Amino acid sequence: MYNMPAMTKNLLVINILAFIATWVLQRSGIDLTAMCGLHFFLASDFHFYQFFSYMFLHGGFTHLLFNMFALWMFGSVIERVWGPKKFLFYYIVCGVGAGMVQELVQYAEYYVQGLSAYEMVNLGDQRITMDAYLNLRTTIGASGAVYGILLAFGMIFPNERLFIIPIPFPIKAKWLIVGYIVIELFSAMSAPGDGVAHMAHLGGMLFGFLLIRYWQKHPDSSQRYGRSYGKEFFDNLIRKHEDYQRSRRMHAEKTGTRRETDEEYNMKQRQNQEEIDAILDKIRKSGYDSLTREEKQKLFEQRRQS
After folding, report:
1. Cβ neighbours of 139 (radius 10 Å)
2. What is the pLDDT of residue 9?
3. Are 78 and 146 in contact (CB under 8 A)?
4. Which tens digits make up the pLDDT trace of 247-276?
């Protein structure tokens, strides 16, 4: 927890507190899921804020555990690369996008099934109104946002090898993402009534993909959320390096050796910045594994000096 980035940690805490609150309030007769879960937009219980609140609720401990584990495992990396503001913006966009896709899927089902022509619905031995039936269509969970984070990891580090249970061998991140997409598509078509919002998962990945592609084509637009693709992560390292170089110059002056001119110092700093930028851009395009031994050593030295 001490090494976890702040925004990832905050999201974990909020989700866990929301889960505890759901359980406590339910024992008092208050259904937090009914109030804050994402309802079908034609239902009477639908509210716009549910596009945001639904992603912090979960239907059970296992649901929460898997989402939070993935958020911790991959979100920590992505936040260190992007910075907290950009990471949070991406997380919310993927979560809201997943909810929008789920709404579209539910509307398609509503239209195809011709439910608008009925006033009552039979549920086994129970007969309820159409409005009550539509209010039962509630979506909760951070899965859409988490799947967006998985996609981001696969796009930024496509060749990073991961061990995923129960696969007995390491698999590259890009193939893992392709596998998840195939599984979700197959599950959505073969088991539409399993209670899992498979299309919402894919919706989170879709919105994440579109946002990343937009940032790649318009890098200046992402500056408001933090520096692009890892520069913010290394800003502190570079500042530490500058302090180190400054102390060396002061030591050289005291020992009588030739003092480095300001022009030489600034030139070295520019060259160092250009090298760091080139390495980060290479990571963004081809993944960490594409770096040479010298490039990896340079990043290691920057971390060690920090």
Report:
1. 23
2. 94
3. no
4. 666 655 555 555 556 677 677 777 777 777
Q: What's the pLDDT score for residue 96? A: 96
Sign of CA dihedral 199, 200, 206, 209: negative
The residue ranges of the chain whose pLDDT is under 50 are 226-234, 237, 306
Q: What is the pTM of this model?
A: 0.71
Neighbours of 282 (CB within 10 A): 15
Dihedral sign, CA of 55, 85, 20, 60?
A: positive
How high is the pLDDT of residue 168?
A: 78
- Max alpha carbon distance in the chain (Å)? 95
Nearest to 89 by CA among 103, 78, 101, 73: 78
SS (H, E, C) the chain: CCCCCHHHHHHHHHHHHHHHHHHHHHHCCCCHHHHHCEECCCCCCCCCCHHHHHHHCCCCHHHHHHHHHHHHHHHHHHHHHHCHHHHHHHHHHHHHHHHHHHHHHHHHHHHHCCHHHCCEEEECCEEEEHHHHHHCCEECCCHHHHHHHHHHHHHHCCCCEECCCCCCCCEEHHHHHHHHHHHHHHHHHHCCCCCCCHHHHHHHHHHHHHHHHHHHHCHHHHHHHCCCCCHHHHHHHHHHHHHHHHHHHHHHHHHCCCCCCHHHHHHHHHHHHHHHHHHHHHHHHHCHHHCCHHHHHHHHHHHHHC
Q: How far apart are CA 82 and CA 149, in angstroms?
A: 12
